UniProtKB/TrEMBL annotation:
<comment type="function">
    <text>Ligand for members of the frizzled family of seven transmembrane receptors.</text>
</comment>
<dbReference type="GO" id="GO:0005109">
    <property type="term" value="F:frizzled binding"/>
</dbReference>
<dbReference type="GO" id="GO:0046849">
    <property type="term" value="P:bone remodeling"/>
</dbReference>
<dbReference type="GO" id="GO:0060317">
    <property type="term" value="P:cardiac epithelial to mesenchymal transition"/>
</dbReference>
<keyword id="KW-0325">Glycoprotein</keyword>
<dbReference type="GO" id="GO:0010628">
    <property type="term" value="P:positive regulation of gene expression"/>
</dbReference>
<dbReference type="GO" id="GO:0043616">
    <property type="term" value="P:keratinocyte proliferation"/>
</dbReference>
<keyword id="KW-0964">Secreted</keyword>
<dbReference type="GO" id="GO:0060070">
    <property type="term" value="P:canonical Wnt signaling pathway"/>
</dbReference>
<dbReference type="GO" id="GO:0005125">
    <property type="term" value="F:cytokine activity"/>
</dbReference>
<dbReference type="GO" id="GO:0045165">
    <property type="term" value="P:cell fate commitment"/>
</dbReference>
<comment type="similarity">
    <text>Belongs to the Wnt family.</text>
</comment>
<keyword id="KW-0879">Wnt signaling pathway</keyword>
<dbReference type="GO" id="GO:0030182">
    <property type="term" value="P:neuron differentiation"/>
</dbReference>
<dbReference type="GO" id="GO:2001234">
    <property type="term" value="P:negative regulation of apoptotic signaling pathway"/>
</dbReference>
<protein>
    <recommendedName>
        <fullName>Protein Wnt</fullName>
    </recommendedName>
</protein>
<dbReference type="GO" id="GO:0090403">
    <property type="term" value="P:oxidative stress-induced premature senescence"/>
</dbReference>
Amino acid sequence: MDRAALLGLSRLCALWAAVLALFPCGAQGNWMWLGIASFGVPEKLGCANLPLNSRQKELCKRKPYLLPSIREGARLGIQECRSQFRHERWNCLVAAASPPGTSPLFGYELNSGTKETAFIYAVMAAGLVHSVTRSCSAGNMTECSCDTTLQNGGSASEGWHWGGCSDDVQYGMSFSRKFLDFPIRNTTAKESKVLLAMNLHNNEAGRQAVAKLMSLDCRCHGVSGSCAVKTCWKTMSSFEKIGHLLKDKYENSVQISDKIKRKMHRREKDQRKIPIRKDDLLYVNKSPNYCVEDKKLGIPGTQGRECNRTSEGADGCNLLCCGRGYNTHVVRHVERCECKFIWCCYVRCRRCESMTDVHTCK
Ligand SMILES: *[C@@H]1O[C@H](CO)[C@@H](O)[C@H](O)[C@H]1NC(C)=O
Ligand SMILES: *[C@@H]1O[C@H](CO)[C@@H](O)[C@H](O)[C@H]1NC(C)=O
Ligand SMILES: *[C@@H]1O[C@H](CO)[C@@H](O)[C@H](O)[C@H]1NC(C)=O
């Protein structure tokens, strides 16, 4: 590792240490693992030096070979969050300097109890399921592999049998639970108790999304593709598809009461009877509008964001700029165009210029 990288790393570690001091061993320590995504080769650092809480360090020591998957899981989750929200006011990015005591990756949103918090927890837990399960199927683990319960059987009458490698999503889910879910501690503060319960629920909702989108892949055998016999296996959907489902859950997320007795219930009194499903995303607090910069919360605001003048949706200048209006810049593109192949042997092109309008929020 070169000096600059080492320096960056030691700064990062100092930051984590400072943050750790603010939240000693609390459940807030839960999110520290997200920092793993920014480490180059975590397995070279050893478990003790990674941004993990004590329980996770313990797990890491026992199973260090899982580190690459943990890092990949964090990367998947973060990337999908940014992709799903790239056109929205909250775009899963925090201000350049996130406030002290908050996560440098998600800032205020990680502990705010909003719909955005719900999405972050769900997508990160799902990312971990996905990457660990992938790694099992790839044969990179000793303690898991393909789903062995599906190796025999099938349906002879329908002309197919289980074969190939079915993704063992149950292993991934159980690992994600062990790594992320903390038992609700004996906390007296009502506020933090309901937030903890909410976060745990949303972790599980994320894992359920991966399980729900398992699909069946089959390959045909038989005389010249007659498909008389098929071999089938279960496979996880792409993480993008899982992200879409979670975005949908986010848009239909359920507000719960901030008073928690034996279990959580809906905030709306006339809806209390409707049960909360385990794949629902739950939130406690209303979100801010994310329109203007708030340095204290690490909200960057939408000033300077590119918007679409003709769209009626969230990416439209009207909504994205919160009614402040927008600036228009003309951007010149130069491309090679009208290319002709000249015998023999080169290509001659013209230079074409085009102008496009780019709009950014005031
Ligand atoms: C499996 O391990 C190999 C070699 O360490 C690595 O290149 C590959 O990315 C891993 N695959 C998965 C899905 O983890
Ligand atoms: C939790 O708190 C209650 C009362 O505050 C106490 O009686 C109980 O022993 C505590 N349980 C644990 C596991 O700390
Ligand atoms: C802007 O929005 C319109 C309408 O939704 C869409 O057809 C168009 O492709 C968008 N333009 C860009 C640059 O995304």
